[in-house]
Amino acid sequence: MNEKTDFVRDIVAEDLSTNRFQGRVHTRFPPEPNGYLHIGHAKSINLNYGIAQENPGGLCNLRFDDTNPEKEEQEYVDSIIEDVKWISGHDQQKVLFASDYFDQMYQWAVDLVKKGKAYVCDLNADQIRETRGTLTEPGKESPYRNRSVEENLDFLARMRKGEFPDGSRTLRAKIDMASPNINLRDPIMYRIVHEPHHRQGDAWCIYPTYDWAHGLEDSIEGVTHSICTLEFENHRPLYDWFLEALGIYHPQQIEFARLNLSYTVLSKRRLLQLVQGKHVSGWDDPRMPTIAGYRRRGYTPEAIRTFCEKIGVSKKDSIIDVALLEWSVREDLNKHAQRAMAVLNPLKVVITNYPENGSEELPSLNNPEDASAGTRLVPFGREIYIEQDDFREVPPPKYHRLSPGKEVRLRAAYIIRCEEVIKDGAGNIVELHCTYDPETRSGGPAANRKVKGTIHWVSARHAIEAEVRLYDRLFLTADASEGGEAGSFLGNVNPDSLTLLKGCKLEPMLLSAMPGMRFQFERVGYFCADIKDSNPGAPVFNRIVTLKDTWAKIELRGGETAARE
RNA sequence: UGCCCCGUCGUCUAAUGGCAAGACAGCAGACUCUGGAUCUGCUUAUCGAGGUUCGAAUCCUUGCGGGGCAGCCA
């Protein structure tokens, strides 16, 4: 079996050993369709589907918690179904909706009224707030608390029929206005909302609150372990109270710490602000920590699942270093991504001793990590492009790349030497003149000659051009949700989170990239043909993540040292 | 301030009364036709104080710190 464990799985194992639920394991993932799913939901999906999968006969329901028509939309339902499918790897054969249980819930509310455990309260929202008490003071009982069962039944039926305006009355549980747990101070079960529901239409004008509805949904579905986040911990006594009062099947609620990620925000409210404030192009902007955003960026579901397993599950509030997520993608893509050569910021190089109109095709490994990936032929010629960064007229110490009079290897090709630097009138470097050593062709007689560096290149004559989008972290600060300069988290937004590059020079093979295909651009990073804007023949690439860049680190550190001195 | 929860390397997670371990990050080195990958090594932690015990990260008390709760949101 799986050695993977955490306190939730410990509880499930314990319940299994005591036969508490007749050997069943049944979890659920209960999103509210009021926004797109983000990576925090991936943690929950992974937990719930994971536990179900690990146990023979285990089940996990996808159930929409659609009890608030004011915030919920069909668009969100559709996106969530797609995202759950993508992350969990399961085709969801059955999608459940809390709103399908509205009749049953209403019946149970009537039962509670009959038992004298619920009452219709005529207080308005302000009055209810005023009589709830505070954190340190008990609340006051509602004057309507002791209405007769008959009167309550009558009012409840009329609430349901639509006789009363929004907010004029509520159905409340009769528990304890003096409870130190505020959730137990006669919580509201139904509120009047004359608003069409995305699935129920106008069938209802009273809607159940989360506290009233959630345990019932779990109970109806036979869920054994209802796993939710820490902020519901104080609600568990209420979850238990309703089920107990009704005398119906009673699942176990378990709370775990929600995911927080450094350099990003992970709340639907803030993500909505980013979308509505046009800080990003939409819910699926590749910089968004949404499932849709990561998918478009080029992350794999495997990488996200690996990440979810590495972060573990506990009750401790924490902020996971986003570097672990980035590591997870690299880990996956290193093994699976097809290699390619792409020059993002081109500098032309003329190989002066190469035949004028000559060209050849050089075999190159598709993936050094995977021999079965084979090789491909990359065209080479007298004029090539290299990365501007790979040449320095005055090389800093430890610079292993090209500089005047120095040699580098062109990956899968020849060793070249820089003979001359051509500049324009303004002194900008526009071209390099180099010579090559024909003996040093990869696999050739002098191929083993050692040079300090190897750089990537693209044949000028064969290169295709493409747009490449470099994405960086969306936020400047590790704790992105804390107020930044503007006093809100929006002040932390990284103005350079997107760099648009046009006219990048890519090896011709990339012309036929299908949308969604991932590549490693050697020495640069992992890239994905955009699923919306890219087409075979006119590719557009998104940077998924950079490669680990030791040189950049050395250089950065050098700069810092210099600045300090 | 009432109630609830949580305090272990920089960051996460483990150790379930018996040698504080792993991952990421960092640092140093080896290797390399990707300054990638890989490999090796190194640095760094039980919030404090009492108590129980042969023995405490773990149990108890208490202090401190962090988080949550006063929507007819979830």
Task: Please render the helix and strand layout as text.
Layout: H1 7-17, E1 26-29, H2 39-54, E2 59-64, H3 74-88, E3 95-97, H4 102-114, E4 118-121, H5 125-131, H6 149-161, E5 170-173, E6 188-192, E7 206-208, H7 210-221, E8 225-229, H8 236-246, E9 252-256, H9 268-276, H10 291-297, H11 301-311, H12 322-336, E10 338-340, E11 342-343, E12 346-351, E13 359-365, E14 375-381, E15 383-387, E16 407-410, E17 415-423, E18 429-437, E19 454-455, E20 458-459, E21 464-471, E22 498-506, E23 518-521, E24 525-529, E25 540-546, H13 550-564
Parallel strand pairs: 1-2, 2-3, 8-9, 10-23, 12-18, 16-19, 21-25
Antiparallel strand pairs: 4-5, 5-6, 6-7, 11-22, 12-15, 13-14, 15-20, 16-17, 17-18, 21-22, 23-24, 24-25
This protein binds one RNA strand of 74 nucleotides through helix 5, strand 6, helix 7, helix 12 and strand 19.
Give structural notes.
By secondary structure, the chain is an alpha/beta fold. It has 13 helices and 25 strands. The strands form six sheets. It has a seven-stranded mixed sheet, with helices on one face. Strands 19-16-17-18-12-15-20 form a seven-stranded mixed sheet, with no helix packed on it. Strand 8, helix 8 and strand 9 form a beta-alpha-beta unit. Helix 2 (39-54) crosses helix 11 (301-311) and helix 7 (210-221) packs across helix 8. The longest helix has 16 residues, at 39-54. The chain is elongated and about 100 Å long. The structure holds one RNA strand of 74 nucleotides.
